[in-house]
Specification:
This protein is of the alpha/beta class. 47% of the residues lie in helices and 14% in strands. The protein has ten helices and seven strands. A seven-stranded parallel sheet has the order 3-2-1-4-5-6-7, with helices on both faces. Helix 1 packs parallel to helix 2. The structure holds NADP nicotinamide-adenine-dinucleotide phosphate. NADP nicotinamide-adenine-dinucleotide phosphate binds next to helix 1 and helix 7. The site of NADP nicotinamide-adenine-dinucleotide phosphate has 30 residues, from helix 1 and helix 7.
């Protein structure tokens, strides 16, 4: 299927690894120009080089910008960099995120605030900075990466769940605000994904093994997967391909959605 996004210019936050990196790679492969954003310079440089290779045939291009999306001036800097490099900004993927397992009573105030800043303020500032110019040109796509935890709070991810629920509300608010302008704002709600967030040493898998007393990582993974209707965690590409579709011309009638990509985890039909 031709996604119809060759030559479009995109920003993907949280693009150094995991879902954001694979999304950037797929966008480049489809011929788009992508600015990859995260904090760790060397990871980003490597990810951008990988994306450049993926775009070799389709004329996809990649560049990177290392910064904390939570900084007050991040949105202006990101939009300015994309416009300088690519001439415009057509597609925004708000994907940067992090999470931790622990008891609700153990979450300090500063972590509640940090979750709000990362999942609500950062995407809000980016949408506010990027969408008006998209609307002026009559075409744009925004995908906000929330979580199943935004639809049904995870008991051991309190501040993350509440912030991801707020991100869904924010996404719908912006979808309504710009409906009819050609700019389509949507969210996705992934279930657990075998990105670095879960799989890196000390990540969610190791934390869950410790919290639930599983004998080892294999058992922890089995337990996390078997509690889902589909029976397993997602691969990064299974999430990235849905994001890429929502960024594309082909998703031209999808607006204000909160698409579950969760192997049936949140068991509602709407
Ligand atoms: N993995 C899952 O099970 C799962 C499930 C549902 C939803 N999600 C959501 O999916 C998104 C991507 O997650 P992932 O699994 O791909 O995570 P990941 O593998 O840990 O990657 C997260 C990316 O976000 C970047 N990042 C984190 N904080 C940032 C900040 N303040 N400023 C700029 N970049 C930042 C990280 O790079 P730096 O650390 O270098 O900045 C990294 O590139 C997140 O929003 C997450 O909440 C994940």
């Amino acid at each position: 299927m031709d996604l119809g996004i060759a030559g479009r210019s995109c920003v993907v936050t949280g693009a150094g690894r995991g879902i954001g990196r694979e999304t950037s790679r797929l966008l480049c492969e489809a011929g788009a120009q992508v600015l990859l954003v995260a904090r760790t310079e060397d990871e980003l440089a490597e990810a951008a080089a990988d994306c450049g290779r993926a775009g070799a045939v389709s004329n996809g291009r990649a560049a990177h910008l290392a910064l904390d999306v939570g900084a007050a001036d991040a949105a202006e800097r990101i939009v300015a960099e994309a416009e300088e490099r690519f001439g415009s900004l057509d597609v925004l993927v708000n994907n940067a995120g992090q999470s931790k397992w622990r008891d609700l009573d153990d979450v300090p105030d500063e972590d509640w605030q940090a979750a709000w800043d990362l999942n609500v303020m950062a995407p809000m500032r980016l949408m506010r900075a990027a969408i008006p110019a998209m609307a002026e040109r009559g075409w744009g796509r925004v995908v906000n990466v929330s979580s199943t935890a935004g639809k049904r709070p995870s008991a051991k991810m309190g501040e993350y769940s509440v912030a991801k629920a707020a991100e869904l509300s924010l996404s719908r608010l912006y979808a309504d605000r710009w409906a009819g302008s050609g700019v389509l704002v949507n969210a996705i709600c992934p279930g657990p994904v075998k990105s670095e967030m879960w799989m890196e040493p000390g990540g969610l898998l190791d934390q869950s093994v410790e919290l639930h007393g599983h004998p080892g990582r294999d058992e922890g993974l089995e337990a996390a997967g078997s509690s889902r209707p589909i029976g397993r965690l997602a691969e990064v590409g299974e999430i990235a391909s849905v994001i890429t579709f929502l960024c594309s011309e082909r998703a031209s009638f999808v607006l204000g959605a909160a698409w579950s990509v969760d192997g049936g985890t949140v068991q509602v039909i709407i």
